[in-house]
Write a structure and sequence with these properties.
There is one protein chain. Helix content is 46%, strand content 0%. It is flat and about 45 Å long. The chain is built from two helices and no strands.
Length: 71
């Protein structure tokens, strides 16, 4: 007998995530961008905390970077 509540539920994703984000802010593009910028700031703070908390040898010398890129 399977227990139904242990299976993860599938979340529907928006077909167009940008349109979904703007619609969430009632069509206000500026508000959508401001929210995304707040999200970025929060994630950068979390990354800084995680970087400070992990040891240098945690991932064989790998450390997370704040800026995207190949380096």
């Amino acid at each position: 007998m399977e227990i139904e509540n242990v299976r993860p539920t599938r979340k529907e994703t928006a077909a167009d995530p940008v349109a979904h984000r703007v619609a969430w802010h009632d069509g206000d593009h500026r508000a959508a961008i401001e929210t995304l910028m707040q999200d970025v700031r929060h994630l950068r703070e979390q990354l800084a905390l995680a970087t400070a908390a992990m040891s240098a040898g945690y991932m064989k010398g790998w450390t997370p970077k704040e800026v995207r890129g190949d380096s």
